[in-house]
Specification:
6-stranded antiparallel beta sheet
């Protein structure tokens, strides 16, 4: 996809298991792009980047023109982006009630001539789940992802000042 190409999104027909209720409560939709990539987005807004004041005016005028006031949509601006909101809706996907990406996909199509993108959601917390056993001396560098009840052998070496954010349990 080119840098200025508008992403095409749809609702993937996959189950998310126990995450369905969490995603619904947190206003998070699961989206699939044209290449089959899955990611999390806000189901009710997009960001449109304005290159200059004239383009910002054109984007705002388009938003006011296409967004139905009865849909409780708002237009807000920051220094670089114009946020356009629309009322989201839920639908049954893979047997689970979830937020649909359809309203966002429609907004993206309406702003295709501009640099528009969905609002991505990144989720994480500093939690180690399970009952890990650690011994020996492995060296870990980067941002590893650990899930389940891992077994690590060696003497872990941690260099630097690790920062943990979130609610570890």
């Amino acid at each position: 996809m080119c840098d200025n190409e508008t992403p095409r999104l749809d609702d993937p027909a996959i189950g998310v298991g126990d995450w369905a209720a969490f995603l619904l409560d947190q206003d998070i939709a699961v989206a699939r792009d044209r290449n089959g990539g899955l990611f999390l987005i806000r189901p009710d807004e997009i960001l449109v980047r304005a290159r200059d004041d004239a383009e910002a005016d054109a984007i705002t005028a388009r938003a006011v023109e296409i967004v139905d006031v009865d849909d409780l949509a708002t237009v807000g601006a920051s220094c670089r982006f114009i946020r356009v909101k629309v009322r989201p809706h839920t639908k049954e996907i893979a047997g689970q009630q979830r937020w649909s990406v359809e309203p966002v996909a429609e907004l993206l199509a309406q702003f295709a001539e501009f640099r528009a993108s969905p609002v991505h959601v990144y989720s994480g917390h500093g939690a180690l789940e399970g009952s890990p056993f650690v011994s020996g001396s492995p060296f870990v560098s980067g941002s590893p992802f650990v899930s389940g009840s891992p077994f690590v052998s060696g003497s872990p070496f941690v260099s630097g000042s690790p920062f943990v954010s979130g609610s570890p349990f």
